[in-house]
Amino acid sequence: MDELIAVLSKTADGAYAVNRDQQIVFWNAAAERMLGYLADDVIGRPCHEIFHGEPRPGCLQCQPDCPVVRAASHRDAVPTYNLLSRTQDGRTILLNVSVIVPLDSERPYTAIHLFRDATHQLQYETYVDQILCAAARLPHPQTTLPQDRLHTLAVYAPLSPREKEVLNLLVQGRATQKIAQTLGISYATVRNHLQKILNKLGVHSQREAVMLAIKHHLV
Predict the structure, then answer these.
(1) CA-closest candidate to residue 182, choices 166, 196, 194
(2) May I ask the CATH class of domain 122-215?
(3) Helix (H), strand (E) at residue 100
(4) 83: three-class secondary structure by DSSP
(5) What mean pLDDT comes out for the span 162-184?
(6) Rounded mean pLDDT of the chain?
(7) In the chain, where are the structural domains located?
(8) How many Å is the Cα radius of gyration of the chain?
(9) Cα separations (Å) of 144 from 40, 94, 202?
């Protein structure tokens, strides 16, 4: 076995190697523990079938024509990236992935991927969303808005039925991931709806949107 592969077989990071056809040719014990797939489950299968890669801002999506493997096949350096994936039992997991590109083109693998669990980042974002939504429902002192601001409130663009559903759940204190689960849509779609809501209401944060919705009975 290649010395590097032998070392990676015992690393604490999950590690797997793929060939030019994106088939997994190596899978270490840490990858088994982290994702729940045994080596026998994944060896010979395309990596995108295992990792999938769900839509999320700032994350790579797995696909048959993988840009990572394509870059590695040309011996180009690949920056570290995030990947929103799922374990074998369906649990959402955010992976931070680094790629090692071997210099020897004769080796049976094109790229080695090292990955670690970064799900705490998702949890942090969820907590922040919950705090912002809870803060938005607290009573605030009455303030006098400038005339131009009052005019803006009166002429904001109407929300679509789906955007009203998203805003209503936001007012209820639901985090982005919970809104996605409740409506049966993807995290990325919810984020897109939220951005459109902010634009239409002329506000800059979800907290402002919630305050505006409560004050003007938008939902």
Answers:
(1) 166
(2) mainly alpha
(3) strand 92-100
(4) strand
(5) 90
(6) 83
(7) 3-117, 122-215
(8) 23
(9) 67, 44, 17
Tokens 């693998």 found at: 109
**What tokens were used for 65?**
């024509």
Mean pLDDT of 178-183: 91
Is 0.85 topped by the overall pTM?
no
What is the CATH T-level fold of the domain 3-117, as seen in this structure? Beta-Lactamase (3.30.450)
Residue entry with tokens 């990572």:
68
Measured CA angle at 58 (ends 55, 61), to 5 deg: 40
Of residues 76, 79, 80, 47, the one with CA closest to residue 64: 47
Distance, CA of 150 to CA of 152 (rounded, Å)? 5
| DSSP notation for 5-58 | HHHHTT-SSEEEEE-TT-BEEEE-HHHHHHH---HHHHTTSBHHHHH-----TT
Dig out the tokens for 128 from the structure.
Answer: 């922040």
- Determine the Cα angle at 28 with ends 114 and 74, to 5°: 45
The secondary structure of residue 117, as a DSSP letter, is E
**Long-range CB contacts (within 8 A, 24+) of 137-141:** 137/171, 137/173, 137/210, 137/214, 140/211
